[in-house]
């Protein structure tokens, strides 16, 4: 009489491997995060810090200049704006290329004007 021998079941092996792989991934992620935060944030070099104030002064000066865009048409709460050769649809509250917010449209002397904040 012959006796059947048990064969290895591949699904049983996968059931043991998946939790082990998940746990290993979690451990590695936690260890990397703790090392990153223990190292701390480095201060910027003095060379970078010396350049930063000049850049902000240039940005402020650029915001004070008159914008070089044109409003083509408006229907009250949105309008068509041309800026550097591109046409944009602008709505109330949108941020304009010069950093200001659109709060309204007015028609002055037959031309549309943007009211910004």
Could you walk me through the main structural features you see in this protein, from its secondary elements to its overall organization?
It is a single chain. By secondary structure, the chain is of the alpha+beta class. Helices cover 42% and strands 26% of the residues. The chain contains two helices and five strands. The chain has helices at 10-39, 46-64; strands at residues 69-74, 78-83, 86-91, 102-108, 111-116. The strands form two sheets. The protein has a three-stranded antiparallel sheet, with no helix packed on it. The radius of gyration is 31 Å and the shape is elongated. The model has no long low-confidence stretch (mean pLDDT 76).
Give a topology summary.
Layout: H1 10-39, H2 46-64, E1 69-74, E2 78-83, E3 86-91, E4 102-108, E5 111-116
Antiparallel strand pairs: 1-2, 2-3, 4-5
Distance from N terminus to C terminus (CA atoms, Å) equals 95 Å
- Percentage of residues in DSSP E strands: 25-35%
**SSE succession:** HHEEEEE
Widest sheet, order of strands: 1-2-3
Helix amount: 40-55%
Task: Please tell me what the overall shape is.
Answer: elongated
Main beta-sheet annotation: 3 strands, antiparallel
Concise synopsis of the structure shown:
This protein is an alpha+beta fold. The protein contains two helices and five strands; from the N terminus they run ααβββββ.
């Amino acid at each position: 009489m012959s006796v059947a021998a048990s064969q290895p079941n591949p699904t049983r092996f996968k059931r043991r491997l998946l939790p082990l792989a998940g746990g290993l991934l979690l451990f590695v992620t936690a260890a990397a995060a703790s090392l990153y935060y223990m190292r701390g944030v480095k201060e910027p070099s003095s060379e970078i810090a010396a350049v930063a104030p000049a850049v902000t002064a240039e940005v402020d000066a650029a915001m004070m200049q008159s914008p070089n865009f044109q409003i083509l048409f408006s229907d009250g709460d949105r309008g068509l704006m041309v800026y550097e050769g591109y046409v944009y649809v602008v709505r109330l509250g949108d941020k304009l290329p010069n950093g200001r917010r659109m709060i309204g449209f007015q028609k002055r002397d037959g031309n549309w004007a943007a009211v910004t904040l």
